[in-house]
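Run: sequence + 2'-O-acetyl adenosine-5-diphosphoribose -> complex structure.
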Amino acid sequence: MTDASTNLKRAAQMIADARSVVILTGAGVSAESGLATFRDPEEGHWSKYDPMQLATLDAFNADPELVTRWYHWRFTRARDVQPNPGHFAIAALQKHKAEQAQSLTLITQNVDGLHQRAGAADVVELHGTIHTWRCTTTGKETPLSELSFDTFPIPSAAGGLMRPCIVWFGEMLPQEALERSFGAMAECDLFISIGTSATVEPAASFLLAAKGNGAATIEINRDPTPNTSIVDVALQGPSGSILPLILNELGIG
Ligand code: OAD
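>> structure
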């Protein structure tokens, strides 16, 4: 048996044995749907654009038209692609765990909504969502589907502007998402990191925190990350291929 298939079987066994699983995902899980990641040296958003000019409140205040256009473009990309087998496998695993009276908490740094479209429930959106926007004056939230993108930026009824409900660099993460994440990490016996470079805090430290609490750890990622050397099992490759293989090993789906 190759190392890869031994590791795959080990990971499947760890998942079968776990009563409380936390999965943390990043942009890599949506890559096979056709959405760019952030740090890919050729295709990543941050290899083409300066995050300080697009993903901060200062950037929005300085050039709200540019920032609104960029997030509207990202929304149309997310809307026009489909969840991939990785998203569907995570949703199926979550359903399976619930049927066994066990739990799987899904925490994502992604704002694209693809986990939900694949059927995942109660997704903790750590960095917010591109599908809801809010007024800069009142904070009132509006589903993007109710907004008209005739003008950029989009004026709000209260005289402010509409901005995406995304966490920009320098902003606080949503309190409820943080509390749910830390609660789940304190209780989990298995933590799985999928498709994230583990470079943006606080998510970057989640795996270490769960490990410190005694959880077993798995990483599924195309490239090595700072977590690769500290996890119990590292599976290197595309999550859209590896996750269905794990499900197959578990006899799910
Ligand atoms: P990154 O772009 O930093 O990392 C994506 C990771 O996914 C990399 O480690 C890739 O090797 C891996 N990857 C790529 N394709 C994959 C595939 N098919 N299967 C598995 N892994 C694959 O994205 P994030 O870690 O999500 O925040 O970035 C974290 C945050 O930084 C984002 O939420 C965003 C960004 O700036 C904000 O915009 C606030």
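>> summary
DSSP finds eleven helices and nine strands in the chain. Residues 44-80+133-166 form a domain with the SIR2/SIRT2 'Small Domain' fold (CATH 3.30.1600.10).
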